[in-house]
TrEMBL record:
It comes from Citrus clementina (Clementine). Residues 152-311 form the RNA polymerase III Rpc82 C -terminal domain. It is found in: Nucleus. It comes from the Eukaryota. Its main location: nucleus. DNA-dependent RNA polymerase catalyzes the transcription of DNA into RNA using the four ribonucleoside triphosphates as substrates. Specific core component of RNA polymerase III which synthesizes small RNAs, such as 5S rRNA and tRNAs. PANTHER family: DNA-DIRECTED RNA POLYMERASE III SUBUNIT RPC3, RNA POLYMERASE III DNA DIRECTED -RELATED. This is DNA-directed RNA polymerase III subunit RPC3. InterPro entries: RNA_pol_III_RPC82-rel_HTH, RNA_pol_III_Rpc82_C, RPC3, WH-like_DNA-bd_sf. Residues 10-68 form the RNA polymerase III subunit RPC82-related helix-turn-helix domain.
């Protein structure tokens, strides 16, 4: 349960970063829980436009997640969709760790990687084209930025799980059935055993996340698309066919660069900090050899970790750390 101190601290962070108006909407959601836009307007006594703009800022900065629920309408039209907004409290706290995140990144990657993530931390969410435009606007003489190198940088960061695709904008949160209700009411321990999220925030986050393969992927132009189109273009002359294929591939690439949105993966950074803390602790209490073995173990099993708060690492083969 969120404490009063936690609420005040989160509001303080949002106030410093985005101003009083956005902080007022954030505080309303922190204290009242998930609300519709109309209810936020009613509780804050702000105009509809002010509430809308504040929510857009909080969503853009990954501090609020919208979700949809279905409520019985009472008529023959069926259930009625209802959009609500929930605060992502942990993501607000992560904002004070941005400098530490960049320090971690600078120890593992080059400056272009650091600058790309810095842009994501500053703007919240960006497409590849927006990243490229930002890099072009700040490029220095003799250090030209091209789209291909930026795409390679993005692929490296996504592969390392420091960057991810943004979640669904408004996932549908299914209501708890009568059979599931008693199981939820037994307490948090039973909820953990059956592997269900305990809070609405966790349920919404789980529902919004894309599949793992999609979450950490960067779509690039591939030759398989050309091969598929060759089957449907036998009656076209070779010259026209090549032009057609190139144009369609370019259109697909441009669409991807302008529509797929990425953000920094806070879980990846927190996991790296936790690993570093464990390794430093072992090094201080044992020796460098033990720390190196633990480091190799954590690196070999990190892909199996699905949550930041992991009690046990994944299983591994001892030969992998030899």
């Amino acid at each position: 349960m969120l404490t009063e101190y936690g609420t005040k601290h989160a509001v303080h962070v949002i106030t410093n970063h985005f101003g009083d108006l956005v902080a007022k909407v954030c505080e309303c959601l922190l204290r009242k829980g998930p609300l519709t836009r109309q209810n936020v307007k009613r509780y804050t006594e702000l105009s509809d436009e002010q509430v809308k703009n504040a929510l857009l800022v909080l969503i853009q900065q990954n501090c609020v997640q919208a979700f949809t629920t279905e409520q019985p309408d009472g008529f023959a039209d069926g259930p009625k969709a209802n959009t609500q907004y929930v605060v992502l409290f942990d993501n607000i706290l992560h904002r004070v760790r941005f400098a530490k995140f960049l320090t971690i990144l600078s120890q593992e990657f080059d400056q272009q990687c650091v600058e790309l993530v810095q842009g994501l931390l500053e703007h919240g969410r960006l497409t590849l084209k927006q990243m490229f435009d930002r890099a072009k606007s700040s490029e220095k003489e003799g250090n030209l930025v091209d789209l291909d190198s930026l795409r390679e940088t993005l692929v490296k960061l996504v592969t390392a799980h420091y960057v991810e695709r943004c979640p669904a904008s408004e996932p549908l949160l299914m209501p708890i059935s009568e059979e599931e209700g008693p199981a939820r009411k037994k307490g948090s321990k039973s909820a953990k055993k059956i592997g269900e999220p305990e809070t609405i925030e966790q349920q919404v986050v789980e529902a919004a996340l894309p599949m793992e393969a999609m979450r950490f992927s960067v779509v690039t132009n591939v030759e398989s698309d050309v091969g598929e189109k060759e089957k449907n273009s036998n009656n076209v002359t070779p010259g026209e066919k090549r032009k057609h294929d190139v144009l369609e591939l370019d259109e697909c690439g441009v669409a991807d660069e302008q529509s797929v949105v990425y953000r920094a993966n806070f879980e990846g950074f927190i996991r790296r900090l936790r690993h570093k803390g464990c390794i430093d602790h072992v090094r201080a209490h044992l020796d460098d050899g033990a720390a190196n073995v633990l480091s190799a173990m954590l690196q070999a099993t990190s892909s199996a970790e699905k949550k930041v708060k992991t009690k046990n690492s994944g299983s591994f083969i001892s030969e992998l750390i030899a």
